[in-house]
Amino acid sequence: MADRKNVSLRRIIARFNAGCRMKQNTSHSVSPSVSPNTLINRLKFKHLALLVALDDARNLHQAAEAINVAQPSASRMLADIEEAFGFLLFERNARGMQPTPLGTAALAYARRSLADLTRFADDLDAKRRGGHGQLTVGAIMGAAPDVLAMAVTELKSERPLLNVRILGETSDQVVQLLHRREVDLALGRLTTPLQHNDFDFEPLAREAMRLVVRAGHPLAEKTALALDMLVGWPWILQPITSPARGLFEDELARAGLTTPSDIVECASIFATLQLLQNSDAVAMLPESVVRDYLRAQLLIELPIEIGKSLSGFGLLRRKFETLSEPAEYFIALLRKYSALSH
Question: CATH topology for 209-301?
């Protein structure tokens, strides 16, 4: 009798869990815990690629196109993935597909796994071709002309077959790249108060800021200026999420001024420099970036001191992670060339 009761109970639980998986409400979508062996046996890298594509597109048709499968196949893959995990990863609604709280954790794992596989495949290919691995670095534009350039130059002189990639231009970009494991380490700043829980930060250098305009600009001959005289001009500014933009907005607030109404937001240093030389815009850029342009008189520095409160940039790395030997050696070179090591 007891055995029959246990069998009936198991059947009831099985029916309940099957019904839970059919519901869209995540609070009713959790099934019994799935063992690691189940995930190992059922999950494939193609599944993880689909999850990342869905997270980017929030649309099943577009995600299927991104990984080159038909939409029905993508739909079956997603059903298999959610069954393997034991809970819904996405809510389906009129706005598209939104990750559930547990789905967000699974998506972060999918991104990390694909990034690790990509780096492994690139490194393996480099070794196959006689190279010696790959190093991917995120860097703000202010670090590139000095500390980064000198460290990379010495690294490549000693290890010419090491493939070095440099990504990003603003701190918010490089922190995101580091979080998504698309870079091994980064040069930049923490951009939110809680990021110290995820990343270690080691100061390396200061970053002096300069207000600049093109040669021949109507303001270029001014020997005395105040910030309130500039807000009526066009501006090229970094995105609002960047520390430099935050500093600029703080300077305006202290002066009792509002943000200029005529602005172009641009994270690309190359695009910013081109726009500056072909317009009457004003920009706030790192001294290391505009130094050669000032010497060549392609740009003119305006006589306003700004950016004194901008914190120095430094080395960012993920906590509790062991880096490769080339990455550790590159960090040693960064310390060698940083302004704080002299």
Answer: D-Maltodextrin-Binding Protein; domain 2 (3.40.190)
